Amino acid sequence: MRILKLMFKNTLRHKLRTSLTILGIAIAVMAFGFLRTVVTAWYAGVEASAANRLITRNAVSFIFPLPLAYRDKIARIPGVETVSYMNWFQGVYIDKNQFFARMAADAETALEVYPEFIVPPDQLEAFKRERNACIVGADLAKQYNFKIGDVIPIEGDIYPGRWEFVVRAIYQPRDGKVDGTQMWFHWTYLDERMKQEMPGRAGEVGWYIIRIHNPADAARISEQVDELFKNSRAETKTETEAAFQQGFIAGTNLIIVLLNFMSFVIIGIIMLVLGNTMIMSARERTKEYAVLKTIGFSGGHLTKLIAGESLIISIFGGGLGLALTYPIVGMFSLFVPKSWFPIFYIEPSTIVLAGTAALLVGFIAALFPIQRAVRTSIVDGLRFIG
Amino acid sequence: MKSIQASFDIPVLNNISLSVSEGDFLGLMGPSGSGKTTLLNLIAGIDRPSNGKVVVGGTDIGALSETALAKWRATHIGFIFQFYNLIPVLTAYENVELPLLLTSLSKAERKKHVEFALQVVGLADRMYHYPKQLSGGQEQRVAIARAVATDPTLLVADEPTGDLDKQSAEEILTLLERLNKEFKKTIVMVTHDPRAAEKAHTVRHLDKGELK
Fold this sequence. Notes:
The complex is a heterodimer of chains A (386) and B (212). Chain A is of the alpha+beta class and 386 residues long. Chain A has helices at 3-11, 15-42, 44-47, 70-75, 110-113, 121-129, 138-144, 187-197, 218-228, 241-249, 253-284, 286-295, 299-335, 348-375, 378-383, and strands spanning 53-58, 66-67, 80-88, 102-105, 117-118, 133-137, 151-156, 161-173, 183-186, 204-205, 207-212, 236-240. In chain A, strands 1, 3, 4, 5, 6, 7, 8, 9, 11 and 12 form a 10-stranded mixed sheet that branches. In chain A, strand 7 and strand 8 (161-173) form a beta hairpin. Chain A is elongated. Chain B is an alpha/beta fold and 212 residues long. In chain B, strands 7-8-9-3-10-11 form a 6-stranded mixed sheet, sandwiched between helices. Classes of the chains: A alpha+beta (386), B alpha/beta (212).
């Protein structure tokens, strides 16, 4: 028999209490993992940002456009590899609840600056050839059952009128961090319609995407771009893609803070649940600990026994909780439209964090019972009536 | 033991000097509250005197640190409690094996020791029974096997027959007598029972913290 066996036997002494504690920890770890996944999903855009991409937008606000004429001037700055541009199109597909990113993109350069969107060469050619063609993400295609050749009708709002786009390419996200729910169509198609129907809005670009040669030059190039258009009709603000994405979620910071807070409250709850179980167990065994000490067990032995028991419970609870997190996150992904949280998966860091939290809780919950067991004298322990 | 004093809120033992020879079987008697158990605890190194020295086998156990004292107990002392104090989730075998876990013995060696100890107390056939599956007398015999498993120098027994019927008590006393005679164990036993005390070679009486 080893001490470990005694730990297991002690753990199973009150099967119902241990089971309920394990279940409580499992639910808490699952909730923690789920909340962390939501927080991660919120930051997915920032996480997926490339270090060699800069975004140039109107200095006043993202909703104000920039002239197309800026493109060539930006392209001449040393260190700039490619300049592409996009417009937020929005519109309504079926009804307002069917949300996904719809953007007008420069067909020639968009995939050069976004190499993580993988399109088969023949589909890319087909997309480039047809003026009202569009590319959709594989996740979006799956959600709406889009196939090559399908027509997507959209009722314009920012750009009024009825628009029809033919699916000519379906891109595959390079990995789980890349959004697979976007739809891009030709910027020139949008611009042509604007020239005909709203000439004042022709030649307008929502933002520029600048691919740079060396990420270390990001600050210098950003400065140079903004310097070029200083005191112009449309001054610019250039920043890294990560900073640009961060700006989008800045308004929701309070929600993130609350979610983070909640996830750590959950850790506190686990600690109380396990702490309570361990205190009860250790108290009931006060006399046994005194007997063990009489036999010759030291404070260190008792520490191992109690901490081990606490860790066994926390490991089982944590493991079960992590195992439950996967189906819960999977179910959430099934019931919530993919376009709400395009990137929604359990990050390895979430697993590490939840696992570490469970282990840490195991240790901390054992501290008080250990201190009590070690400090109680043998004589007092033997006299204890629990 | 020289001029030891033990006090908690009130003095329990006053200037007691007691010497127990190797191989002796000492019975300690006295009314409740006379300090018998306190004296036994001091001898076993589970309590410390307020003043004086407790020397067992040449070791001043009062000078040992808690960890050293725990090691000393593991090696030199076998403690027999009135209420057996077996660990309920462990079998008789595992209970007896407990003190051996603190030694450097291999699993096979531990097995030999446990089996021998259980054989000595006549419970080799109850090895895999849990305490709740044993009678009071059998539990006490397992507790004795646990106490002798490490082959300690000194056995201390606190009212070992106090919770047993007459027949079981007799069996336990016979067993202690055998351990003393056959295995040369030094025994210090606290008892209220005059029949138990009869088994001891020497009987000392404690009253109001004083040894007579």
